[in-house]
Amino acid sequence: MIKAITKRASIQYDVTIFQTPKYRDKKGYKQVYRMFIHASTRENCLEETFSRFNVTDRIPANYKGRFLATGDILLIDEGTGGQYYYQLKSGGWQPINRIHIR
Q1: C-alpha to C-alpha distance for 48 and 29, rounded to whole angstroms
Q2: Would you place residue 35 in the very low, low, confident or very high pLDDT band (cuts 50, 70, 90)?
C-alpha cells in the first residue's frame, strides 16, 4: 500500500541516441534513433534506455545503431523542462555539455 502511495508518476521522456560511425571515435556524432521512454526520473530513463538497447530481444526492429557503449550520447528532452545531455563513461552516465556532439 505504501509503495502505491509513494510511487512517482511515470513521465514520458523524449530520448535521442547519438553515436559515432565507428566505436571509440571522438568526433562525428550522428543521431541514430529517437523514441519516448516512460520513467519516473531522468536516472530511471537512462537505465531503461541502456537496458533496452543492450539486450538483443528488447532492441526495436527499426534501430540501425549498435549496442550502447562507452562514448555514446543521449539527449533527454523534457520540453519546457529543458534538454539534458549524458555520455556513457566507464563509471556510468555523466552529464555533458551540448558541444560534445559536434
Answers
A1: 22
A2: very high
Q: What is the mean pLDDT of residues 63-86?
A: 94
- Partnered with residue 89 across adjacent β-strands are 92
pLDDT of residue 9: 80
State the pLDDT at residue 83.
Answer: 95
For the four alpha carbons of 63, 8, 73 and 35, in that order, the dihedral sign comes to positive
SS3 content of the chain, % helix, strand, coil (to 5): 25, 35, 40
The 10 Å Cβ neighbour count of residue 77 is 14
Sheet holding 83-89, edge to edge: 30-39, 11-19, 73-77, 83-89, 92-96
